[in-house]
Structures are given as C-alpha cells and as structure tokens.
Specification:
alpha/beta; Peroxisomal Thiolase, Chain A, domain 1; 2 domains; five-stranded mixed beta sheet; four-stranded mixed beta sheet; 10 helices; 13 strands; globular; binds coenzyme A
Length: about 350
C-alpha cells in the first residue's frame, strides 16, 4: 500500500513517589477500612509526594524515563503535551515548567485539562500533529499530585481514598506505515464529552463560576469548595457505559474484533468499572491489565503508568494490538487502538 504518515509510540516511562500509603494508613485521618476500599474499588495502596514535590517534578522523571526508553535526545522533541488536573500553579501551564526543567526552550508546551481522559485526548492531539507533518517527535505526559488537594476528613472519604500521585509519559514519533498488520502506529482515536454532567465530578473553586463573585474566598475554603466532589454511583455507571460504547466504536471503525486485540489498557478509576467493561464487551479478564491496586486513580497518568508496568512485566510487547479507553470528569471519555 502507499505509505501513510502516522504516529507511533517509541518510548514509555513513568514515575511514582516513594511514599506508599496503605489503606489502613488512611485511618489516621478518616473513618474507613481496608476491607471497604478493596471490596468497592480494588485499591490496596497509593503513592503520595513529599511536600516539596510538584506535578511537573513527577512529570520530569517520567519524561526522562520515556526519552531514555525511546533512545531519543531531548533536543529532538518538538512539542510537549501535558495532561493534568492538578497543575503546579493556577497558571501558567505545567507544560511550561516541564519544558524549563527538561531544558528544551522555545518548543511549544500545551496543557490540556481533560481529567481522567487527558492522556487519550493528548494521544489524539499528538497523532493529529504528527499526521499533518507539523511535528515529528511529541512528548506526551500525564501527571497528577492529588494528595495535596484531598479532603482527608471522613466527609471527603468517598473521594480521597480513590486517588494517588504519579506520572506517565510516552514519546510519539512520525513513521511511514505500509503494513498496518505488522507496523507500530496509532490506528484510531475517539474523543467525547458531555458538559451537562460537569458537576457530577468537579472541584468548584477556585473559579470565576463561583456566585459570590470571588475567585476564592475564606467561605469557599471553609465549605470545602476547593475539594473534589463526586456523585460516585452516577460516575460509575456512566464510565462503564461510555467506555464500552467508545471502545466498541473504535473496534468497529478499524474492523477488528475483541479477539484480534492482544491487550486492553483502561483508565484506572475502579477495578469494578474495568471488570464491568470487560464483561460487557466479552473481553477475557486476563486481557485487561490493571494497576489500580497499587497506585489508586492517578487520573491523566493511569494509562501510561500501566503501559510502563505492562512493558516491564513482559505483558506488553512490540507488535501487539492494544485497545485503550478512559472516562472522567467533564464528563469526558475516549478510546483508542494502536499497534505497540
Ligand atoms: C466511590 C465508590 C467506590 C462508592 O461505592 P458505592 O458502591 O457507590 O458505595 P456504597 O453505596 O456501597 O456505599 C456508600 C456508603 O459507604 C460509605 N463510604 C463512602 N466512602 C467510604 C470509605 N472510604 N470508607 C468507608 N465507608 C465509606 C458512605 O458514607 C456510605 O455510607 P452509608 O450507606 O451509611 O450512607 C463508587 O461509587 C465509585 O467507585 N464510583 C466511581 C468513582 C470514580 O471512578 N471516580 C473517578 C472517575 S474518573
């Protein structure tokens, strides 16, 4: 076939901070139990940063690991895409901090705020830029520091037990594809959103949408408006439905079946969500690689973190066909198919 300009993943890296917080450790702040958390979510532990560590610090470690795995010098990167909902500061974007820490001045740095779908939105953006020929090597990072922004009291326990800190990164490079059955490339990406459900999973403040007319004030802080709030059951059922729908559409568009796909990497919000998606699509459970047990939900970082671990364990190998899906605040959801 005529060569087709595509993007492919050439390097994967990740980083989690050293401090491990087991479910039982959370009992010093809130009423909860290991049994409740494991039964409802599958999570056993998560990692939290030290006070001085920021989101871009985690992203830097993941990026350096991804560049090393790609065997690519950082000077070859011509775009940074940084997906996060927990930036270093309100502005500028964390991509600018990462660019400076990497020491690659002047290249564009784009922050995207698609929460748990952030990595797949970023993958799609990187893919489009590479397919058009505008950029050749894109560094895509998903990184989060949740631990500094959670309500650790019993009032916030439904949310705070779920989240962990971490970062994952991939390097995407341009490639000419002549044999899609063998070559590594991003085959398909699908992006969706439905803002009607924005407040089912959100942090209200700081923000210009606050009716008091202030961006942030003492009352908002006293009321915990700066902490994430969630309608857990609504998020759960929507995640199962939307991830299943989107992934089904991706497979159909590429004319491949579940049996053709070697591995599925889903966003890690709740082990039961991923099991329900697998069951709906009749995906054998052993084809779904989950990491939530050890990291909790690291939002934009879950998928690249899973990729890094799957590669390290020999579960993800070059040439494999991989199905991806994610769902999160917005609501936003997305899916992708790639040959690794
Ligand atoms: C949060 C979630 C695990 C809760 O599970 P659930 O099955 O809806 O909760 P249940 O109805 O079984 O339990 C609720 C009870 O547990 C309590 N509870 C909530 N969090 C708890 C915790 N950490 N420890 C102990 N008890 C807790 C509640 O107070 C409530 O008690 P009550 O019945 O006395 O009022 C689940 O809704 C979920 O995972 N939703 C999706 C979340 C998500 O994925 N978010 C990120 C999306 S990207």
């Amino acid at each position: 076939m005529t060569p087709m300009k595509c993007a492919r993943i050439v390097g994967v890296g990740a980083y989690v901070p050293d401090r491990v917080i087991k479910n039982d450790d959370l009992k010093q702040w809130m009423e909860t139990s290991d049994e409740w958390i494991v039964q409802r979510t599958g999570i056993k532990e998560r990692h939290w940063v030290k006070p001085e560590q920021s989101t871009s610090d985690l992203a830097l470690e993941a990026s350096l690991a991804a560049l090393k795995s790609a065997g690519l010098d950082k000077s070859k990167i011509d775009l940074i895409i940084f997906a996060t909902l927990s930036p270093d500061h309100v502005f500028p974007g964390s991509g600018c901090y990462l660019q400076s820490k990497l020491g690659i001045p002047e290249i564009p740095a784009l922050d995207i705020r698609q929460q748990c779908s952030g990595f797949l939105y970023g993958l799609s953006i990187a893919d489009q830029f590479i397919r058009t020929g505008m950029y050749k090597n894109v560094l895509l990072v998903g990184a989060e520091v949740h631990s500094k922004g959670l309500d650790l009291s019993t009032k916030g326990r439904d949310v705070s037990v779920l989240f962990g800190d971490g970062a994952g990164a991939v390097v995407l490079s341009a490639t000419e594809v002549t044999d899609p059955a063998k070559q590594s490339f991003i085959w398909n990406t699908r992006l969706h959103a439905d803002g009607a459900h924005a407040e089912e999973l959100w942090a209200a403040a700081p923000g210009t949408g606050m009716p008091s007319g202030n961006w942030l004030d003492e009352q908002m802080v006293a009321e915990g408006k700066h902490f994430p709030q969630m309608n857990g059951k609504r998020v759960f059922t929507s995640a199962v439905r939307r991830m299943s729908e989107s992934l089904t559409a991706t497979l159909k568009e590429c004319k491949v079946t579940v049996a053709d796909v070697d591995l599925f990497l889903f966003h890690q919000a709740n082990l039961r969500i991923n099991e329900a998606v697998a069951d709906q699509l009749q995906i054998p459970r052993e084809k779904v690689f989950n990491t939530i047990q050890h990291y909790g939900n690291t939002t934009a970082a879950t998928i690249p973190l899973g990729m890094r671990d799957a590669v390290a364990k020999g579960v993800l190998k070059p040439g494999m066909l991989v199905g991806l899906a994610a769902f999160g605040s917005g609501f936003t959801w997305s899916s992708a198919l790639l040959r690794f």
